[in-house]
Amino acid sequence: MNLDSSIDTRALGKVPEVTFIFWMIKIVATTLGETGGDAVTMSMDLGYLVGTAIFAALFLVAVSGQIAANRFHPFLYWAVIIATTTVGTTLADLLDRSLGIGYAGGSSILFILLMATLGLWRWSLGSVSVESITTRTAEMFYWATILFSQTLGTALGDWMADDEGGLGMGYEGGAIVFAVGLAIVAAAYFWTRLPHTLLFWAAFILTRPLGATLGDLLDKPIASGGLALSRYSASAALAVVILACVYWLPQKASRHRA
């Protein structure tokens, strides 16, 4: 008997396995990012610049803890994800609205930044797969990519839904479009030979505008096509859902070749 063949030579990573549970929590987290970001910038009337500064600081603290950690901590990991969604919300709004770049311009800039980050990551380390995150350098590329994808997703969601400067499809229409896009990606995963890494990042980008439109659907005024729920109560409810999912639903660390 070959003993080496019976030994699992894969080491545990610091990010979770990509499962249905992962995507479920990701969508709820992105929805929380939208309502939480709007609560600070709009309900508290602090503005997009101050809101971005606050959430950027929280992101830097959370991601520093994640990178310094020696193993996968579910609550810490999802805290960083939520931080990227909130700062992504306020940063996209800062670019699109406060700086007057507009949805198309802001989305284009963020798409270029995202592609540049992925390209530099691929050129530097040879792979952008989540299974290749074995060093701190790879992890920093991973989180930079996530931050840009979250911000791009916010801009795309607003562009799709907004009547002023956008495509005017409304929040329900935008959510349906992005949900269909995710379904197409899922079908490609199961029934085509497209690279799974490509499909992962496509799905990661699409879940953000889906969460953004769902968040806007919850807290925007009825006259604007929303349900006019309190941003504070919606954010609190979403946070409880995430905590419950992380606590009760099983998540394992991803594995990579040792």
Structural class: mainly alpha
Largest sheet: 2 strands, antiparallel
DSSP, total strands: 2
The amount of helix comes to over 70%
Q: What is the secondary structure topology, with strand pairs?
A:
Blueprint: E1 10-16, H1 20-43, H2 47-68, H3 74-98, H4 102-125, H5 136-161, H6 170-191, H7 196-219, H8 231-248, E2 253-257
Antiparallel strand pairs: 1-2
Structure description:
This protein is mainly α. The chain has one domain (11-252). 72% of the residues lie in helices and 5% in strands. It has eight helices and two strands. Strands 1-2 form a two-stranded antiparallel sheet. Helix 1 (20-43) crosses helix 7 (196-219), helix 1 (20-43) runs antiparallel to helix 8 and helix 3 (74-98) crosses helix 5 (136-161).
Summarize, please.
Helix content is 72%, strand content 5%. It has helices spanning 20-43, 47-68, 74-98, 102-125, 136-161, 170-191, 196-219, 231-248; strands spanning 10-16, 253-257.
Keywords, please?
two-stranded antiparallel ribbon; disordered N terminus; 8 helices; 258 residues; globular
